[in-house]
Amino acid sequence: MLDRSEKLPTWLNKPYKLTEPEIENPFLVLEDFFEHDYLYGNRDSLWELLKSTVTGSYPKDLNRKERSNIIYFYELLERLIEACYLIHSLWSEKKLFCSPPGEEKKDGVENIACEEEEKEFENNPIYESIIDSGRSIPGIDKIFMIKHHHRSDYAASLLYLTHNNTNPHTEVARSIQSYFLPEFPVNILIRPATEVCNALKTGHLFYERVCHTERIKYDAQHTALPKPEPTGVDHVKKTAVDKFDRIYAVVPGFLSGADYYRKCGNTKLAAFSLHQVAEHSLRALLISVMGFAPHTHRLNTFLKATLFLTEEIGGVFQEDDENDLRLLQILNLSYVKGRYNICNDYIVSEEDIKTLFDKVSDLECKIKGTFTNIILQHGKLSHSAYKTDIIND
Question: What is the fold of 233-377?
Answer without folding.
Answer: Four Helix Bundle (Hemerythrin (Met), subunit A) (1.20.120)
